[in-house]
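Backbone-to-sequence.
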């Protein structure tokens, strides 16, 4: 899966005509086939039991921490076809099944240059605080990403992941989840049990136990963010072993 870096999003452009001009005038735009993205919708339906109360949403995130989403637009685009995809201020969007776009083999196109944006599934069970993630939600996000992105991997790497059980089910493959602020700690809790969750060295990603059946889908992960002044007292992250999926 593609490497991710967190960044604070901005507001999308608001005028439809400007959106169309932006898409058509940008060289080497960011592309993803619509039919490929539909595999994410299929994965959501197949694995919805992991987060039965959570809607399916996608997020656009900038590829670099200093980048912003100001002026970003999104379309389903093909020859003689341009269907706008509404983009929320935080970069969120939803996709529906559109026969016209499917038959036209449309691409999901932004008005930014290729590789300047990344996407991820965004699954959140309603009612949880902003700094709390449910493990089943994270597992469902992983299933959606794997369904969409596996065909982009090299033949060797894709089959190695499959032999290992897939990135969402193997202890050999670690899937970091990005955040928009530096982390001090992440703790998992299920009933009376707790466990400290590994945080990456840059303090902007954490690695939940997706594969570990000892932690059920209702396990809650509490993310504690650190101000810069508190980072000196934070313990260094443990080294990560095995194949790392970023």
């Amino acid at each position: 899966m593609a490497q991710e870096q967190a960044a604070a999003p901005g507001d999308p452009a608001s005028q439809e005509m400007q959106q169309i001009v932006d898409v058509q005038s940008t060289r080497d735009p960011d592309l993803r086939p619509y039919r490929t993205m539909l595999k994410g919708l299929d994965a959501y339906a197949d694995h919805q039991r992991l987060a039965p109360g959570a809607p399916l949403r996608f997020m656009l995130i900038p590829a670099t921490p200093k980048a912003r989403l100001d002026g970003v637009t999104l379309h389903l685009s093909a020859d003689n076809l341009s269907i706008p995809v509404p983009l929320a201020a935080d970069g969120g969007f939803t996709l529906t099944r559109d026969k016209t776009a499917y038959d036209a083999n449309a691409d999901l196109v932004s008005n930014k240059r290729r590789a300047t944006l990344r996407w991820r599934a965004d699954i959140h069970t309603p009612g949880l605080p902003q700094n709390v993630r449910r493990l089943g939600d994270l597992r469902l996000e992983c299933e959606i990403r794997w369904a969409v992105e596996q065909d982009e991997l090299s033949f060797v790497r894709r089959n190695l992941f499959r032999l290992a059980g897939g990135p969402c089910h193997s202890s050999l493959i670690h899937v970091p989840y990005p955040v928009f602020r530096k982390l001090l700690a992440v703790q998992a809790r299920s009933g009376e049990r707790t466990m400290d969750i590994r945080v990456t060295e840059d303090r902007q990603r954490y690695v939940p136990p997706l594969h570990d059946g000892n932690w059920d889908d209702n396990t809650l992960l509490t993310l504690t963010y650190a101000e810069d002044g508190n980072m000196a007292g934070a313990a260094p992250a443990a080294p990560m072993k095995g194949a790392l999926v970023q």
